[in-house]
Amino acid sequence: AQSVTQLGSHVSVSEGALVLLRCNYSSSVPPYLFWYVQYPNQGLQLLLKYTSAATLVKGINGFEAEFKKSETSFHLTKPSAHMSDAAEYFCAVSDGFQKLVFGTGTRLLVSP
Amino acid sequence: NAGVTQTPKFQVLKTGQSMTLQCAQDMNHNSMYWYRQDPGMGLRLIYYSASEGTTDKGEVPNGYNVSRLNKREFSLRLESAAPSQTSVYFCASSETAWDRDQETQYFGPGTRLLVL
Which of residues 10-69 of B touch A (CB under 8 A)? Predict the structure, then answer.
């Protein structure tokens, strides 16, 4: 069975600081991994996905994530946080059979 | 393109009442999904439809039924609502469920349901 663990339900950073959101996965098949963002009162929007090509994946809004098989991790980073990045971020793994399994989410707070 | 649309946006029900949540997509996607989102629990899959005419249970199907009306529409029905079904419900769609490179899911704006 597939699962993801997101460490930290809340992460606080200052504007301009590095953003690091952690995701570790467990998968019995080669994983496809996703990061989604949810702004208040909205649906989820795809940030980026890993599909076994390049291990460093670049997404929208300056975010990127690196797949590390040895660490079973897929952490999300952004060099410099903007106020507009404040949102909830979800990591998800595909089981390869039409289903996504989501983590519990990390709320990113950005202070001026 | 509107993408994935959901109606209603917000609903209040009394325990025991029934209702249907509607979802439609205009991206010609084959696969559609219903999730519920609860605080601290992320999104959990209720039901999904890999293609028109098929539906399958997800992680939390109890108390729900679904209908894949046609390729565009996928509805979720609560026959007898319970307070435990208070949640935010999201519909999603993807091009196909059989090609892993096409399985990115696109989400609707959600329906907030309160059951008293």
Answer: 31, 40-45, 48, 50, 58
Lowest mean pLDDT among B5-9, B14-18, B39-43, B70-74: B39-43
Interface list for B 74-113 with A (CB within 8 A): 90, 92, 97, 100-101, 103-110
Give the burial string for A56-91 (b: 16+ CB within 10 Å, else e).
Answer: ebebeeebbbebeeeeebbbbebeebeeebbbbbbb
Tens-place pLDDT, residues B47-81: 999 889 899 999 999 999 999 989 999 999 999 99
